[in-house]
Amino acid sequence: MGNRVSREDFEWVYTDQPHASRRQEILAKYPEIKSLMKPDSNLIWIVVLMILTQFVAFYLVKDLDWKWVLFWAYAFGSCINHSMTLAIHEVSHNSAFGHCKPMWNRWFGIFANLPIGVPYSVSFKRYHMDHHRYLGGDGIDVDIPTDFEGWFFCTTFRKFIWVILQPLFYAFRPLFINPKPISYLEIINTVIQVTFDVVIYYVLGIKSLVYMLAASLLGLGLHPISGHFIAEHYMFLKGHETYSYYGPLNLLTFNVGYHNEHHDFPNIPGKSLPLVRKIAAEYYESLPHYNSWIKVLYDFVMDDTISPYSRVKRHQKGSVVLE
User: For residue 146, how many other CB atoms are within 10 A of its CB?
Assistant: First the structure.
């Protein structure tokens, strides 16, 4: 169904990613930005509150009819769980306890992982650091779709299905693009998460467990917040591989929408990224950006020039040090 997209390959470039050079230029002009490179202690309490909120929700849905379990999973739980994945994103940058306490951040990430239902935090950290260091790197950056995704999801209907299935592609894509040996922390993350899921099942029942897992699956698929997956790096305008979003959903997503600012300064917590934009306004105001993630999702599905192939890729130069 729908016209076939015109793009048949990724956008291959032979230049370095723009973020490192822009970071150096901005810091030379505005050295005070370095003062923003510090942990966000409020992140800890926000995550704890979100986890407690989901624990209450697990209890409240345990005796509901199935239709209401799924309704609340999408209407409420999906927002909490998607937001929690972005809290884990913050923690992966050591924004909770700082770079001097890396293991505190890893353990806190495992704790934040609990209401998501699927072990995720430790693996995400390993691959996300590669995404920052080698943005668009062929065979390295697993944020880039596979060739199969670009080839197959090439019509309006297929792209719609791809959006729904995004969490599955993000989960399995690393196994095909950049598989890594399992670390002991990933094993610990998995054991703790499976144990938690079993406890939820035996204490509260199958409906609470389904609510938790459905909230993650639905919240990371066809959902307004999921527009950030596409908005961040899909090339809607030729020559631009990173885009920021300045709409209200940043309030639920730890300012992940400030994505140019984030890639320029990954050591600055999300809460301070608006200050980066304010201080170095001339560097960001002229860059293309979005005000609606819903519109991004609509345009991705309906625009015949956009597909999973609409990503900038580069062959990495020099030595590669993976996380």
Answer: 15
Q: Residue 22: pLDDT above 90?
A: yes
pLDDT, one tens digit per residue, over 226-274 is 999 999 999 999 989 999 999 999 999 999 999 999 999 999 999 999 9
Q: How many CB atoms lie within 10 A of CB 39?
A: 20
- Is 74 in a helix, a strand, or coil? helix
Rounded-to-integer distance, Cα 317 and Cα 134, Å:
10
3-state secondary structure of 78: helix
Of residues 115, 123, 108, 91, the one with CA closest to residue 215: 115
How far apart CA 107 and CA 103 sit, in angstroms, is 6
CA 279 from chain center: how many Å? 25
* C-alpha to C-alpha distance for 293 and 289, rounded to whole angstroms: 11
Mark out the alpha helices in the chain (DSSP H runs). Answer: 19-29, 42-61, 66-72, 78-92, 102-113, 121-133, 147-152, 156-164, 166-177, 184-204, 206-219, 227-233, 259-264, 273-279, 281-284, 293-302
Do the beta carbons of residue 301 and residue 156 sit within 8 Å? yes
266: phi > 0 → left, psi -120 to 50 → alpha, else beta; which?
alpha
With vertex at residue 85, the alpha carbon angle to CA 311 and CA 233, rounded to the nearest 5 degrees, is 15
Q: In 3-state terms, what secondary structure has residue 11? A: strand
State how far the alpha carbon of 173 is from the alpha carbons of 133, 158, 319, in Å.
18, 18, 23
The residues pairing with 314 across neighbouring beta strands, listed in sequence order, are: 137
pLDDT value at residue 2: 64
Residue with tokens 């209890």: 59
CA 322 to chain centre: 19
Sign of the four-CA dihedral 197, 203, 206, 209: negative
Residue 316 φ/ψ region, left for φ over 0, alpha for ψ in the -120 to 50 degree band, beta for the rest: beta
- The DSSP element (H or E) to which 244 belongs, if any, is strand 244-245
